[in-house]
Amino acid sequence: MIYIAWHLLYAHPLPEGHRFPMLKYELIPEQLLHEGTIQQSNLFSPVPAKEEEILLTHDKHYWKQLKDLTLSEKDQRRIGFPLNLQLIERELRIAQGTIDGVKFALTNGIAFNVAGGTHHAGSNWGEGFCLLNDQAIAANYLLNNKLSNRILIIDLDVHQGNGTAEIFKNESRVFTFSMHGDKNFPFRKEISDLDVALGDGMEDFEYLSLLTKNLEKAFEKAQPDFVFYLSGVDVLTTDKLGKLSLSKAACKKRDQIVIEACKAKNLPVQVSMGGGYSTDIKDIVDAHCNTYRLAFDLFT
């Protein structure tokens, strides 16, 4: 059984101007159910994560400012929208969805979070629509509970996983691999264990060649027993913010390369969806759904 974290709250507590890209959180499971890729039994609704899990990753003062809604206006602008309690609950449910996902992945090989991929959140800051770093929180859950000894985080969102890199910069048990637009947000990059900077306009063949070469390098250096995969679809040529020129077929091949590699190495993998900002919501949803379709073909 492949389990997928999903909650209606994922999509709703955002200001009006930010709701369009969040529609995908409703449309992805609807499409997968409609086409028969998944059943209702594949979906689960996470509860909010506990404070003790958050504080394994995030600074205590930063977390207090979030939950008390006392973060400065400047810091809220850095995040991209004003705080409210429903938004904090959303982030806590996303984080728990990824924690639950790692438990399911350990048993079943792979698990998904329809949301997540909040990789711009650092230990003491939020940025780029990210408040709490779900995969970092789940990685620390694994380490703290001695469920994993070596973790690889594969971040193929078009934007660097700067928060993830900062959180684990002094943690040798977590290897961070980010393949991202060189001249894209965030404009001040952190240092991952393996960064691959991509030029504007990069197309399918060059991208997939770089991925194949560097993914194997990441596996060799990390020697992981657990993998996190951030599968943002903002690499598409149709994406308003991505600056790359990948076709939908290449985006699907990217996912295939990563997921097949994890399965071949018998490594459990948790997948969070990351970004996607194409003008047509159908392009976003279909590209994300391809990730699930591949996983269900390989693991069921």
TrEMBL record:
Keyword Hydrolase in the entry? The reply is yes
Residue ranges annotated for the Histone deacetylase domain, each copy included: 20-289
- Coiled-coil regions in this chain? none
Any Pfam family: Hist_deacetyl
- By its UniProt entry, which InterPro entries does this protein fall under? HDAC_classIV (IPR044150), HDACs (IPR000286), His_deacetylse_dom (IPR023801), His_deacetylse_dom_sf (IPR037138), Ureohydrolase_dom_sf (IPR023696)
Is Hydrolase one of the keywords? yes
Keywords, ordered alphabetically = Hydrolase
- Give the UniProt family note: Belongs to the histone deacetylase family.
Q: Which protein is depicted?
A: Histone deacetylase
